[in-house]
Amino acid sequence: MSHSSLLAVCLSVTVFASSAFAGVIRVPANQPTIQAGINAANKGDTVLVAPGTYGENIDFKGKAITVTSSKGAKVTIIDGGNVATVVVFASGETRTSVLSGFTIQNGITNVSSLVDGGSIFIANSSPTITNNIIQNNEACDGGGGVAVEFSSALVKGNIIRNNGACPNSAPDGAGIYILGTGSAQIIGNVIQNNVSTNSSTQVIAFGGGIMLNGGGSVLIENNLISGNSSYNAGGGIAMFNDVSSGTIVVQNLIMNNNSMSGSGVYWSSPPAVFADNTVTDGSASSDSTWSVDDFGSLVTVANNIIVASKGASNGLLCGFTDIVNPATFYNNDLYAPHGSAYAGLCTNQTGMRGNISANPGFVGTSNLRLKGGSPAIDAGNNSALDLPTKDFAGNPRIVNGNGGSTAIVDMGAYEFIPVVLAPKSLSFGLQGVGSSTSKTVKLTNAQNKVLKISSYSVPTGYSVSGCGTSVAAFTSCTLTVKFHPLTSGTFKGSLIVKDNAGNSPQTVSLSGSAR
User: Fold this and answer.
1) Which of the listed residues 344, 375, 407 is the one where a domain comes to its end?
2) How does pLDDT run across 282-320, given as a tens digit for each residue?
3) Is 59 part of a structural domain of the chain?
4) Measured torsion, CA atoms of residues 35, 41, 43, 47, in degrees rounded to the nearest 10
5) CATH (domain of 446)
6) Which among 344, 376, 401 is the end of a domain?
7) pLDDT digits over 9-49, tens only?
8) How many other CB atoms are found less than 10 A from the CB of residue 205?
9) For residue 4, what are the contacts with CB-CB under 8 A and spacing of at least 6?
């Protein structure tokens, strides 16, 4: 064997051995504190934390380790004690540095430590932050909850709520503050009730939910951004200083946020893509739900629903420039019953390139799914950039909602599902030959028209009854599935309902066995 081949084998064995001996350090069983666990950990190790409240301010110190709880965020708390930031990543950490499964609270920035990131401060590092509850933290400058600076961090599946400002301050991005270049991903979080201005100091502040400051290729996708507020602009999201070099804001539910301008969304410079979002205004007085100072020629705006029906006067307000490239502004619904859909320097786009101005017909004031008959159903554009494969609720993104000849995507974050069967699977377990067991399935016709059912089918060993051949608009009925095996064996298959809805056939998986 050559020297180079022998070296390669030795290196591979070393790598294998390193991963094979990755250890678990239990807190407090093996180490008394989380920081002590981090200090003792080696690359690839897991610091596993038992339920309890830990009064600590921790630093990952560049280590590629996982720090997680054994029983979840609700019962495992890291409390910063209102003395400093709770968790720091500032030593070049990568996605292999993972923080997961904690409630992180009572952090605060101060001049002697950090001014950004009350709960979590990330600088020139790119960790993974997932499945945490980040609450009741304060920042003096940016990021009451999380500050992500010059970073490609993954922030996914967290609840970020009730974060705000130090006394006599107004931090931008009370929920999340993103600064500088990087490719941070903000995916599937609940960002709720964060306030960027202290009640006693109503000064300029932006981005109650999220603030982007600077370039980079940030992805903001599938987040619920609700009930946040900033004094000046961008109660939900604010974007500044050339964020457009690849930033994508896609399929977010941005609702009930408040600020003086752009209660839902504000930008001074546009992202690359703003698509498939549902944006509503909050109750506080505002000039618009969506406020834009500069549109730019490259931004694509498609398949959005923008509503100003509460405190906001207008749908879209253009401050300094009109929509520069109307060809990339298409298939949006801007609705403002008390003002103008397009205000300021904006040219009205209604009736052009699939843009409409109509009440989108939500199911309710807090349920922003589309109701049967909504003009936003099948009114989007299937070729819009960065269209996800699943909608905000996890349903297929393109569904034939109106029963037309082709399936067309809906506007907004949700796809309308005409007929729903629930649950999606039935398991009958093991039973005796010749016996029978029944379970039920709820069939909901969400359409504004009668559903006509042409057939039901089930595999051998099953039968189905109920609902009949038609179901009235906006009503439900019950199907009864009976498992009655006449021989021993395994019985698998599907209940299949065929009808005149666009998403026909609907199915429910069936499984059972007999002996």
Assistant:
1) 344
2) 999 999 999 999 998 889 999 999 999 999 999 999 999
3) yes
4) -70
5) 2.60.40.10
6) 344
7) 333 333 333 344 679 999 999 999 999 999 999 999 999 99
8) 28
9) none
Largest CA distance in the chain: 81
Question: Which strand (E) or helix (H) includes residue 232?
Answer: none
Whole-angstrom Cα distance, residue 358 to residue 333? 7
Number of domains observed in the structure of the chain:
2
Under 8 Å between Cβ of 215 and 243: yes
Q: How far apart are CA 352 and CA 332, in angstroms?
A: 10
Strand boundaries in 345-418, DSSP class E: none
159 touches 126 (CB < 8 A) = no
Instruction: Quote the tokens at residue 158.
Output: 């967290």
Do residues 436 and 335 both lie within one domain? no
- 179 and 294 in one domain? yes
Q: Tell me the sheet residues that pair with 49.
A: 27, 69
Cα–Cα dist 369/359, whole Å? 13
DSSP state of 170: -
Please, what sign has the CA dihedral across residues 23, 63, 186, 134? positive
CB-count burial class (<10 Å; 0-12, 13-18, 19+) for 89: buried
SS (H, E, C) 36-83: HHHHHCCCCCEEEECCEEEECCEECCCCCCEEEECCCHHHEEEECCCC
Amino acid at 456: Y
Q: What is the rounded distance in angstroms from the CA atom of residue 397 to the CA atom of residue 327?
A: 23
Residue at 74 is within a domain: yes
Give the type of residue at 118.
Answer: G
pTM (two decimals): 0.93
Distance of CA 449 to the CA centre of its chain: 32
- CA 155/CA 225 separation, integer angstroms: 14
Helix (H, G, I), strand (E, B) or coil at 206: strand
**C-beta of residue 476 within 8 angstroms of C-beta of residue 443:** yes
- Nearest in space to 256 (alpha carbons), one of 264, 245, 268, 247: 264
Any domain includes 411: no
Determine whether 499 is exposed, middle or buried from the number of CB atoms within 10 Å of its CB (0-12, 13-18, 19+).
Answer: buried
The pLDDT tens digits of the residues spanning 136-175 come to: 999 988 899 999 999 999 999 999 999 998 876 767 899 9
